[in-house]
Write a structure and sequence with these properties.
The protein is built from 30 helices and six strands. The protein is mainly alpha-helical. The chain folds into three domains: 386 residues, no CATH class; 70 residues, no CATH class; 82 residues, no CATH class. The chain starts with 8 loop residues before the first helix and ends with a helix. Its main location: membrane. One of its GO terms (biological process) is guanine transport.
C-alpha cells in the first residue's frame, strides 16, 4: 500500500496535527459528542465509581451517623446495617455517594482539560476502574474495615500524585517502563478485567447472579429478597458459647444435666477456670461470666455479628426479576456492539435504567416502597430534583496527612504507585501508538512522542485533584482509544470529553438513581473487553505464562488487585533467580557459555532499559533485539491484514494517511 512520505521530526508532526484541528473540532462536536464520546458512558461511570467508593463508608462516623438504637445494640457493627434497618446510616451513605458523583465529574473535567490544553493529546482521564476497587475493598475496606481510613488513603493518593509529577518531569517514569516485564503488564490489565467482572456479578454493585455458599464459597444466586440469607462471620469460641448458653437457657439446664460427652469444654471451664462448685445454673453463669462485664472469656460476642453485604440463596435461585432485567440489558450491550452500533454500553444502561424508573406496579422498579432494594422512597424524592448544584462537602478536602506517619499508609502509597504506574503508562503508550498509525513519524525510534513529559505530568496532576476532591486516583481512560481509532489526533478530543463531564456534574440526582443491576452488566462488559490484553502474553514461554496466569487468577479469588500483582511478581522473580542459577551451573559444567555471557543474558532487560543494548549485540552470541522481533511481527500482521482486507477499505485508509 502506497502512503504519503513519513513526516520527519516532531515539529513537522505538530504542524500536521494543527492543520486538522479545525476539522477535528467540527467533526468531534457534531459526530463524536453524539456517538463516540457517549460510548465511554462517562455519565453512568460517575455513578459506578461513586457506588464503589461509597462502600468505604467515607466520612460517615458510626457513633454519630448511626441511629442511637442500633449504636447501643451493636456498636460499630451498625455500619453493616441495611438502609431499612438503620435509615440514619443509610442516609449518610447516600449523601456521601451524591458528593462522590460531583467529585468524580469535577476531577475528571479538570484533569481532562489539563490533558487537552497543555499536553494536547486525545486522552481522557477519570478514576481508574480496578484501582477504585482496590482503594475501597483492600486499602480502606468495606465500611472502613481495612488497613487505613478513607481520609488517610486520600492523603496517600495525594502524595502519589506529587511523586508521579517528579518522576515524569525527570524522565524516570519512561525509563522504568523498560524494567517491568511486558507479559506481567498485560496480565495485570486482564486480571483487573476479571476482578471487575466478579464485582459486577455480585449483588452489592451488580446483577446478583452469584452469591456466597458455605460449601463451595460461591454459587448461583439471583433469588427474591424473601429467599436471601446473609452470612455471619464469627470465631469458633463465639459460636460454641452462643449455642451452649442458648441451649442452657432454653432447657433450663443445671450442672447435673451437663454431660462430659457433649459439654466437656464448658464443664472444664466452669470447674477449672471459674472454680465453681455444685450446684450452679449454667444459664446464669453464662449471663454473669461469659457475656457479662466481668467475663474472663476474651472477646466473646453477645448475639449474632453484623450480617455480610453479600448474600446466599435459601432457594428459588435465578428467579429475581431485577437480575433478569439487568441480564437483558447486558445482552443488548453485547448485541449492539457486535452489530457495530455506537454507544452500545450506554444504550444498554439506559434501557435497564428507564425500565427501573417506572413506579408501581413494576416489580423491577428502583423507586418507592415496591423496590426490592431498601431506600426506594428516598431515592425517588431525590430523583425528582432533576438537577442540583454540585456539592463535594462530604468528600472534598478531608485528607489526613498525619496518617503518613503510619506504615500502612505508606504501604497503600506504594501499592497505588505501582498500580497507577502500570495502568496509566501502558494506556498512554498504547494511545500514542494508535495516533502514530494515523500520523507517521509521531513517535521516534525509542517510542517517544511530542509533549510526552507533559502528558505524564497531567496524569500526576489528575491524581492530586482527585484526592483533594475525595475520589480514588485518576488515570488515562482506556476508552480514549475509541476517539483515536475514529481519527482523533489532538487535544480537541479531550476538550469535548471535559465538556461532557462538566454537564454531568449538575445532573447527579439522575445519575445517582441508576440502579446497580443497570451498571453491573457494564462493569462485566468492561471486564470482558479488558481480557483482550491476555492475548499479548507469551503463553508459549512458561517463564512468562505462569506469572501471568497467577496474576489473572489471584485478583478475583483473593478479591485484591495487590495480591494478584504480588503473586505474579514473586513468581517472576523466583523463576528468574532459579534460571540464572541453573545457567551458571551449566556454564561451569559444560563450558557452553562464559560467565560474562550468562550474566549478560540474565540482566539483559537492565541493559536495554539503560540504553546499553549494543553491549548485548556485541558480546552475547545470537542476541536479537525485542524491537527487531516486534517490527518483524508487525510487518507480518500488516501483510496478513492487507491480504484479507477488501480493496476499497485499503484505499480508504490510504486516503486518510495522505
Amino acid at each position: 500500500m502506497n502512503v504519503s512520505p513519513t513526516v520527519r521530526g516532531h515539529n513537522n508532526v505538530r504542524r500536521r496535527c494543527d492543520v486538522d484541528c479545525c476539522l477535528e473540532l467540527r467533526v468531534l462536536t457534531t459526530l463524536h459528542l453524539l456517538r463516540h464520546l457517549h460510548r465511554t458512558s462517562f455519565q453512568s461511570f460517575a455513578a459506578v465509581n461513586a457506588g464503589i467508593l461509597a462502600d468505604t463508608g467515607g466520612t460517615c462516623v458510626p457513633e454519630f451517623d448511626c441511629s442511637r438504637e442500633r449504636w447501643d445494640a451493636v456498636g460499630p457493627g451498625c455500619v453493616f446495617d441495611s438502609a431499612g434497618t438503620n435509615p440514619q446510616w443509610g442516609a449518610c451513605i447516600a449523601s456521601f455517594k451524591q458528593s462522590l458523583i460531583a467529585s468524580t465529574c469535577i476531577a475528571s473535567m479538570l484533569a481532562t482539560l489539563c490533558m487537552g490544553i497543555f499536553a494536547r493529546m486525545p486522552m481522557a482521564l477519570a478514576p481508574a476502574m480496578g484501582v477504585n476497587a482496590y482503594f475501597t475493598y483492600t486499602i480502606v475496606g468495606y465500611m472502613g474495615t481495612g488497613l487505613i481510613s478513607y481520609q488517610a488513603a486520600l492523603a496517600a493518593a495525594f502524595v502519589e500524585g506529587c511523586i508521579f509529577i517528579l518522576i515524569s518531569a525527570s524522565g524516570l517514569r519512561s525509563l522504568m517502563v523498560e524494567l517491568i516485564p511486558k507479559s506481567l503488564m498485560y496480565a495485570t490489565a486482564a486480571g483487573i478485567g476479571s476482578f471487575l467482572a466478579f464485582i459486577g456479578l455480585q449483588g452489592s454493585q451488580g446483577l446478583g447472579v452469584i452469591g456466597y455458599d458455605g460449601a463451595t464459597l460461591v454459587a448461583l444466586a439471583g433469588c427474591p429478597p424473601e429467599e436471601q440469607g446473609s452470612s455471619y462471620m464469627m470465631r469458633e469460641v463465639d459460636s460454641y458459647w452462643l449455642n451452649f448458653c442458648f441451649s442452657a437457657w432454653q432447657f433450663q439446664d443445671t450442672n447435673d444435666t451437663l454431660t462430659s460427652y457433649t459439654d466437656q469444654y464448658a464443664l472444664n471451664y466452669f470447674t477449672s477456670v471459674l472454680n465453681l462448685t455444685s450446684p450452679f445454673n449454667p444459664s446464669l453463669v453464662c449471663s454473669q461470666y461469659i457475656f457479662g462485664s466481668s467475663s474472663p472469656v476474651p472477646l466473646v460476642q453477645y448475639g449474632l455479628p453484623a450480617p455480610s453485604a453479600a448474600y446466599g440463596c435459601m432457594g428459588h435461585s435465578m428467579q429475581s426479576l431485577t437480575m433478569w432485567l439487568g441480564i437483558f440489558g447486558g445482552a443488548i450491550m453485547v448485541l449492539l456492539m457486535a452489530r457495530g452500533v455506537p454507544a452500545a454500553i450506554l444504550w444498554g444502561i439506559l434501557f435497564t435504567t428507564f425500565i427501573s424508573w417506572i413506579p408501581y406496579p413494576n416489580k423491577t422498579t428502583y423507586f418507592g416502597d415496591q423496590s426490592t432494594l431498601p431506600g426506594g422512597a428516598d431515592r425517588y424524592s431525590y430523583f425528582l430534583k432533576g438537577a442540583t448544584v454540585p456539592n463535594v462537602g462530604k468528600s472534598g478536602g478531608v485528607l489526613n496527612f498525619n496518617a503518613l506517619s503510619h506504615g500502612n499508609t505508606w504501604l497503600a502509597l506504594i501499592s497505588f504507585l505501582y498500580l497507577d504506574f502500570m495502568d496509566a503508562t501502558s494506556t498512554m503508550y498504547t494511545l500514542a501508538g494508535l495516533v502514530a498509525e494515523k500520523v507517521p513519524g509521531f513517535r521516534n525510534e525509542k517510542g517517544e512522542w511530542p509533549r510526552q513529559i507533559m502528558t505524564m505530568c497531567c496524569d500526576g496532576f489528575a491524581i492530586i485533584i482527585g484526592s483533594t476532591l475525595g475520589t480514588s486516583p485518576l488515570t488515562v481512560f482506556a476508552e480514549s482509544t475509541v476517539g483515536v481509532k475514529e481519527g482523533g489526533r489532538t487535544g480537541v478530543v479531550a476538550l469535548v470529553v471535559a465538556f461532557g463531564f462538566g454537564i454531568s456534574m449538575f445532573l447527579s440526582p439522575i445519575f445517582s438513581s441508576i440502579p446497580p443491576y443497570a451498571t453491573g452488566p457494564a462493569i462485566i462488559f468492561v471486564g470482558a473487553l479488558m481480557m483482550e490484553h491476555a492475548a499479548h502474553v507469551e503463553w508459549n514461554d512458561i517463564n512468562k505464562a505462569v506469572p501471568a496466569f497467577l496474576t489473572i487468577l489471584l485478583m478475583p479469588l483473593t478479591y485484591s488487585i495487590a495480591y494478584g500483582i504480588i503473586g505474579g511478581m514473586c513468581a517472576t522473580l523466583l523463576l528468574w533467580l532459579c534460571n540464572m542459577i541453573i545457567d551458571f551451573v551449566l556454564a561451569t559444567v559444560y563450558k557452553n557459555m562464559t560467565m560474562r555471557q550468562v550474566y549478560l543474558d540474565s540482566f539483559s532487560h537492565l541493559y536495554r532499559a539503560f540504553g546499553k543494548e549494543q553491549v548485548l549485540v556485541d558480546e552475547l552470541p545470537g542476541y536479537v533485539s525485542p524491537h527487531t522481533l516486534s517490527g518483524q511481527k508487525a510487518a507480518v500482521e500488516f501483510e496478513i491484514t492487507a491480504a484479507v482486507k477488501p480493496e476499497n477499505m485499503m484505499k480508504s485508509e490510504e486516503a486518510d494517511l495522505k
